[in-house]
Design a protein that fits this description.
heterodimer, A: alpha/beta, five-stranded parallel sheet, 55 strands, B: mainly alpha, Fumarate Reductase Iron-sulfur Protein, Chain B, domain 2, 59% helix
Amino acid sequence: MKEKIGSALIVGAGISGIRSALDLAEMNYHVILIDRAPHIGGTLRQLDRQFPDDHCGMCKMLPLVDRDAASQYCLRKGLFHENIDIMLSTDLVSLEGEPGRFQATLRFKPSLVDPGRCMGCGECARVCPVEIPDEFNAGLTLRKAVYLPVPHNIPNHYVVDEAACIRCGECQKVCPTEAIDLKLESRRAFRILVVDDELVVRDSIKEWLEDEGFSVDMAESGVEAVEKLGKREYGLMLLDVKMPGMDGVQVLKAARDMRPELPVMMMTAYATVETAVEAIKMGARDYLMKPFDIEKLVSIVVQYYQDTESIPERRVDVGAVILAAGFESSDAGLVKDTYGYGQLPNVVTSIEFERLLSGTGPSQGKLLRPADGRPAEKIAWLQCVGSRNLHLNADYCSSICCMYSIKEALLAKKHNGGNVDASIFYMDMRTFGKDFQRYRDRAQQEHGVKFIRSRVHSVEPGASNGSLSIVYSDPAGTVCQEEFDMVVLATGQKAPRGTSALAEVAGVELNPWGFCRVSDFSLTRTSRDGVFVSGSFSGLRDVSESLIQAGSASLCASALLHSKGGELAEVAHERYPVREVSREMPLTALAVCSCGEILERAAGLSGIVETLQKAGLVSEVFRFDRLCTRSDWEDLRKKTESTRCNRVLIGACLPYVYGKKLKELSRSAGLATSLMDVVDIRTPAFPGLDGDKRSVSRHILTAIEMALARLRGVDSLSPVHTEVIRKALVVGGGIAGMTAALAIADHGFHVDLVERSPQLGGNLRTLHRTIEGSSPRDLLERTLSRIEKHPLLTVHMNARVVHSQGRVGRFLTTLEKEDGRGEAIEHGVCILATGGKEAAPRSYCYGDSEAIVTQHELEGMFREGVLDPSRLGIVAMIQCVDSREEGRNYCSRVCCVSALKNALYLKERNPDTDVYILYRDMMTYGFLETYYTQARRAGVIFIRYDLEDRPAVEVIDGRLKVSVLDTVLGRQIILEPGLLVLSTGIVPAEHVREAEVFGLSINEDGFLMEAESKWRPVDFMRQGVFLCGLAHSPRSITESIAMAEAAAQRALGLLCRRELPIGSTVAEVRQSLCSLCERCIAACPYGARWRNEEEDRIEVDQPACQGCGSCAAVCPNGASVILGFRDQQILAVIDAALEQVGG
Amino acid sequence: MSTNEPNTNASPPGTRGADAMQTLAGRLSACMQCGTCTGSCANSESMDITPRHLWRLVQLGLKDCIFDSATFWICSSCYYCTLRCPRGLPLTDAMGELKRIAVAEGLFRDRTSPLFYRTFLDTVRRYGRVREMEVMARYFLALRSPAVSAGFTPLGIKLLMKGKIKPRIPGMSGRGKLGPIYDKVREMEARS
């Protein structure tokens, strides 16, 4: 019988890793989330604000369904989830086994600070004498060798940067909890034998290594070396190759006999490299070339030392692996010779600029120049630094820089009250995402950001102190010079360091640019089965696309786990009996932990407890020395089982780690979790804060009293459980709808797929091939045959959705069939994939000549074989037809690629065909850029036009004449093409009806509006309804598939439960006070309230309610209350904070 | 394709000039008109059209406009554009190629630049090094334009005063030794 392994490993805890982890955790799989860095959050921890709303919003990723399973606070600070084990400073070192049953080995980098003891007091950093640039602020500030990787993390433990540490031992001495162990002793115990006939070599190596804390012995000849090896144990031998008498190779032989396990490293001059290589074959580990680079030598020795140290390794069994190792900013230093980065302090990278704008940054959010602290008033952004550059093997577009530069320009303006002159120097402004074009237009028209189409070649010091001079050629060819206060380099992305090693360990292939290679029609499947990729690790993407891809990766992983028998868990929310206490007097049991002796000493804990008892605030007190230990916890569990109290308050440290523990306690004590709380009594006693015993004691007393007041007022909740109808409805039978339906059905749930036309397939039927050369037709056939065979799929052809009622988990939707018959379908979730289609052109004489066609029509001609490419003289293509201007002001994202694909196809079939592409900005984002380069190389001529000077098309006696102004030449070019192809873009399908039926909004371009463009791209505000594909915005086949998988994943998060759990903080209506004004309905951002017309009352959909409190704030009568935050309760807490028992 | 100006002196297809122009256009086809070359060019102020403009003409095959311009003659081969081009295109080489084609086909509007290049190279061939006084004397003679020669007089006097050029003719140890290189180049060019 197969053992079930319902767990997954996720490598990389950036946002895509977190998203994938949360997705799988919500399905109740166990997730191990590792990251090489000592923090979670990846790059996002450094970025405070994202467009389009210029806020953060990372917390919107937190679970909406089983909210209590995860911590509910700022995700930038930390994440706790019952089903996620986060392991930081951890690497994946091997991955064996097969899909569904992998054995992964994880290696932890010892941090030298025990996170169990470190309480973040900062004494160590105060005494540390080392100062080095701080990565968190992108090197703009300094930090110590013992430091906090992210200043606002919870919990926040110090770590030692071993490379920077000079092992002075000061931190170890001052640490009040003895959390730091620099392991000076074990370094000293690591003895190294240096064998070289030259004294100067021996001496300098000895000095370097002793500075690092190692013990070093020297031998000046082979004979002496062998002698010493006989007498003592050594951890490592550094051995010269060429020595008089007994040479290195002979010593090596002797050493192999005497101590076969001793690592030997050869030292060699250039002349004897071959001998050194020979030596490696004989068992030496490595060789070092003279003259030595100190840092390299030391780092190698430290590596050997760490290998011998018992580095904790852990083997875990996982069913699937997701690689989310992210990206790295391309090195601005590579282009420093022309942009002055590193030499001119006012030239910063985009990450540095984000830090300058941040409140936790070097200037507390004031926009000041790094060089002199003066306000930056004139700023230039230079695009494509490290991207679209063949010199740097970067024939790709980094996809995100255009948008973040616009955002940064707007933020800069906001920071300085609009007094910032912002210029963006670019080649193509790639505003290819949903609403990107309008964001750009607003920046230009409303906020005055200047967009200058020119690639700047260099930055030089300007005339005044600290200013920077830029020389560039404007589009007309005039060479201009301008001075700026600051220059921001929009650095692109590249594969992170260690990618090739990780790829080797995980057994996946990389693409030519060093990113993870993905399979056809997938953004997440790698070359190894069972290993998936998520986020920027497979190419460059922004937040929302990373999250879509993360959803797709977690779907693939959960499908694998499911198929291998790691069935969807459904046990987590089984109900257990709890005592009904609403009619009892509140009696509170207080459990306090004195943290050994510390709290007794620092605050007189006994006195505090006595005061509380005397005041009658607590009925029972349990005291513990270390509640964090298993035995004390068991003790508490027993005590609460037999207590008569109906409230439990725990006074301890780190309250956020108690989530799962409290549930355990709740079960054994038979008390609802809402009747228990944990209060932090440890932090006030941290050294470094106010050390006065009376004041510490007062702080702790107040904290306990406030928590007691809150707990007294808690009303025990008797939740109404919603049973989930475990079926899904998918509307739209294009590739997105079909993919989503199959994904859900593969997890064992029934799916109804509704398509309004007589056949499935949508746009896939009209496409000839993709630019990568794969066949959409094959994909269609594969998908159709799977749909036909799937036992859990019912397809409703020629049908439309006409009515739907119900809420998340329980919907009743009516379909109208072709013959007018209706059919009612019950379902728990719904996915809208209503699609879109190619827009019909309205301009450029479309319809006046058969030689004017759209890109789709051209593809149709290729497919049908009715076009002979060898007989076309000139082909012209016009991009952005009727789009990216008001009326349809968005980029359709696929047309540039379609044009390139068709142009390359024409050139391939007949290189003599002259192909002209008339474009505004080539939107070849990501690796698509390489096809742009290919097309140029193949001789396709690209002519850029401006909106003011758009091409003119005439049909004269059946012949076409296209004239366009070439901006570089400044003159009209006249083409007489045999074929004119119009790239018209994509318009959404007619889905007003569907949107109305499900109560969804549509944006001004007719696309369905998601809950949140960045963080919840596949959700609607209405819970239980999700979207994917062209209904959201234009995208390619592969992107539609990924989005469908992400939507299916979100839907499965609900379907995998029998009942929808309700959070402990939810809204309730006190009907006697309610005047039915319905303000709360308008205020609720989650659509969780409605008016029950039959009973004339306001109802709360508690599974959908997120407890945000908007309803309570707008209610004029105080009829809307948030459980756990009632007015009386909050007032009592405030009272407790202000007045104190016992003075 | 056509422009609003008639294309008068394009080489007939199949001739060497047309091939060379096509090869050159092929080598520059990846150019995306970003303008880095123009922004970098030390001499762009003296050029009648910018380097970016020139490459565009090459891409479009507008030979008459290309050789109507003096831009490629003004290139001083500093290689800035080649170094900085994000597409890694051989721009300086392309300037040289245009000079070669212009001389080979007699496509120049103004003979001063070709004359100067020829005089310069002849002197080098003859003596194995440059002799400034002689280059200039031969150049002025070849120009057959006393006005141009007279225009250089103040500059010449200034350079003489500062000792930048010397009236004394340097020794001629390398005389005639570069001849075989020149012959070989000519032979190679004839083949290509």
